[in-house]
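Reopening this one. Same input as before:
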Amino acid sequence: MASLFFPLVVSAAPLLPITQAQQILTLSENQSQQHLPIQIQGVVTAADPSWNGQFFVQDPSAGVFVDSRIQPIPSPGTLVRVTGVTEPGAFAPIVGQPRWKAMGSSPLPPAKSVSIEQLVTGSEDGQRVQVQGWVHSARKEANQWILALVEVS
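Same output, byte for byte:
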């Protein structure tokens, strides 16, 4: 009895890129470690020269951290197209190995009102938010102001 073996060729279809920031944020840590492709377009909501090229970008679905090391950094209000891969972040998945291109300018998205209690949980990381309260104390460290707020009741 003769055995015949046929080679099996398997080709995987390329993964479609993630196109919304909210899709990135809903990934588990294990999923974000798979370096899934990303292609999003949104407005830069926060960037600072001391962040070494890193910034936050927000599309209509949510905001997400972009772990860029590319200089110069885009300024808030710049509309950018960002490509990269998913990576785990400190609070939520982020855009790693990014490339970005300025596409113009855009108004900043409206800030979501949140409580100070909600803000300190980190659940709003990457989102453009506003809080209301009394400034209890303020001090300047390097180029940033550190505020201690008391919530208005």
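So the earlier flakiness isn't reproducible anymore. For the record, Strands lie at 37-47, 55-58, 63-66, 78-87, 94-105, 112-113, 129-130, 133-141, 144-151.
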